[in-house]
Amino acid sequence: MLGKKSLWVLLLAVALVMALVPTALADGNHSPSECLMAGDSGDLEVQEHTINADDGFDIDKICIKSGDGAFGDLQHSGVITTDGSYGTGNAFTVTGLGTSSVTVKSIGKDISHIDYNQVEKPKPKGEVEVKKTAKLTYDKEHKWDISKNAVWKKDGSDVVNPVLLPADGSGDGYIKWLVDVTYEGFEYTNVLVTGKIFIKNVGDLKATVESIEDVLDTGEVGDVTCDEYLPFDIEPDDYVTCTYVVDDLDYPADGKNKVTVKGEFSDYTSFEEHAKAYFEDMGPSNQINKTINVADWSSYFGYQSLGTVTAPYDGHFKYHEEFTYEGVGNCEELEIVNKAFIKETDQKAYEKVVIKTECLVFKGETATGDGKPWSEVNKAPNTWFEFSPFAKTDKDIVTGRKLSDIGDFSYTNLAGPTSQLCFELDDPWELADVAGNVKIQPLNGYPTAYLAPGKFAVHATVDPDDSEGFCVTVPDATYGYAIHLDVGKWVSIGFGDLA
Questions:
Q1: Cα separation, 358 vs 492, whole angstroms
Q2: Whole-number pLDDT of residue 371
Q3: What are phi and psi of 323, to 5 degrees?
Q4: CB-based contact 68:110 (threshold 8 Å)
C-alpha cells in the first residue's frame, strides 16, 4: 500500500506527463463562448474546406479552430465577418462570407473545426433612385426704332416738297439728311429651364415607370422626353435617362424644380420617388441685336454704310448734298427716295425729296436796226424787215414787230473795202442758238425789192453767249445796211419737267 508521500509523487508525475502532451481541441459543442454558433464542421484536420448553408440561408460569420499555433496562444480565430486573411502569417484565407457558400484555405496549418452562423437570405427588395439637373437659359433681344428726315440747311427747317430752284440761283443750297436710331430697351426671349432626369433601379425587382412629372416651384410644368415611351421597364442595375424643358416662362429668375417618378415593382408594390434641382440666373446665353449696323440707300446716292450703334445708346447719323440750279439743269424734276435701315432687324425709314428747277423756254423774235421801215419806202404793208440807213452814229436795235429797244449797234469803216458792224444786246435778250443768226445786206441805194432772210449777202453765226458784244465784218456800202437778227429771251413757264 502506498503511503501519502508516494501518492503525491505519483499524482505529480501524472500531471507532468499530461502537461507535456498536446491537448486536443474541443469540438463545436465545446467551443469558446465567442465562437459558439449555429453550425459546426469539426474534426477536419484539412487545409481547405467549404461550408454550404441550408437552403434559403447565407453564412454571415465563422470561427476557425486550429491546434498548430496559428492564432498564437489562442486556438481559435475569434468571430470572422468579412472575407480576408487571418492568423499568423495570414495562414488562413476566407472567401464567400455573406453568401450561401464559404471557403477557408490554409497554408501549412490544419483546420480542426469551423464554427459558422447562418441567417435567412434577405427577401428581394424594390428600390428606385432618381436624380436630376436643372439649367436656366435665355436670350436678351434688344429693340430699336429708326427715323429719317431731310432738313434745308440754309435755315435748318424741314424740307418742304418740292424744293424749288430758281434760274437766278437764289434757291441754291444744301439738303441735310438726318437718321436717328433710338434704343427702346430689351425683352427676354427663349426663356427655358432644361435638364436631365436619371432613373436607376438599385433594387432586386424589375421596376415599371408609369409617370414622370417635372414642375417648377412657380407651377410651370416641363415637357419630359425619355429614351423609351411610358410606361417602360427598368431591370435591376439598369437606368433610363430623360430630358425635360420648361418653355412658357416670361422672364428669368432663380428657382428650383422637382421631378416625381411613379410606378410599380414586379411584386406589385408601388413606388413614388422625388428629386429636386436648383437653377440660377447666370446671365443671357445670347445678346440678340445688341450691336446693329445702320445703312442708307437712295436713288441718288446709292448705298452707303452709316455705322453701328450698341445698346443701350442711341445713334445719330447725317450727311448732306448741295443742289444748285446750274447743277441740276433747266426745267428738271429730281425725285430722291431715301431709305435708312437696320440690317439686323430689317427696320426701315423713308424720306422723299422732290427738287424742281425753273423752266426757261426761249421765245424767239427778229430784230433790226432802228431805220426807216420797208413799208415806208415801198409802201408795202405787213413787212417784218427793216433796214438802217447809212450813218456814222450809233443806232438802236429794235425788235422787228414791236419796235422794242433791245440793244445798240455801231458802224466802223475799216481800211479797204470793208466795214465793221458791232452789236450789243441788252439783258435778257440774246441771239438765238441757230445757224446764220446774224444776217446783213449792204445797200448802195434804196432797196427796190423785198429781201427775204435767205437772200442777205452776209450770214454769220454768233455764239449766244457773246450776245452782250460781238462784231461782224461786211463789205462797204454807200447807202446803208439791211440788218436781220434772230434773237429772243428766256421766259419762265414754271418749275419742273414742263418743257
A1: 7
A2: 56
A3: -130, 125
A4: yes
- Strand ranges, E, within 266-301: 270-279, 286-288, 291-298
**Chain centroid to CA 175:** 34
pLDDT of residue 447: 66
Lowest mean pLDDT among 33-42, 111-120, 204-213, 488-497: 33-42
Radius of gyration of the CA atoms of the chain, in A? 63
Residues 6+ apart with CB under 8 A from 303: 295, 296, 297
The cell for 32 is 469558446
pLDDT per residue as tens digits for the range 427-458:
999 999 999 999 888 877 766 666 676 778 89
Cα–Cα distance between 257 and 245 in angstroms, integer? 11
Please enumerate in sequence order all residues whose Cβ is within 8 A of that of 70, keeping only pairs 6 or more positions apart, or say none: 64, 87, 88, 91, 92, 106, 109
**Gap between the Cα atoms of 152 and 176, Å rounded:** 6
Residue whose C-alpha is closest to residue 369's, from 266, 277, 275, 477: 477
Distance CA 422, CA 381 (A): 29
**Do 118 and 98 touch, CB atoms closer than 8 A?**
no
Confidence of residue 483 (pLDDT cuts 50, 70, 90): confident
Q: HSE-up of 82 (CA within 13 Å, CB side)? A: 1
- Residues in Cβ contact with 122 at an 8 Å cutoff, skipping those fewer than 6 apart: none
Cβ–Cβ under 8 Å, residues 99 and 61: no
404 versus 196: the higher-pLDDT residue is 196
Those residues whose C-beta lies under 8 Å from the C-beta of residue 282, and which sit 6 or more positions away, are 136
CA 50 to chain centre: 74
Round to whole Å and give the CA distance between 91 and 419.
154
389-417 pLDDT, tens digit each: 444 455 667 665 556 788 888 878 776 78
The predicted pLDDT at position 1 comes to: 42
Q: In this predicted structure, what is the pLDDT of residue 370?
A: 59
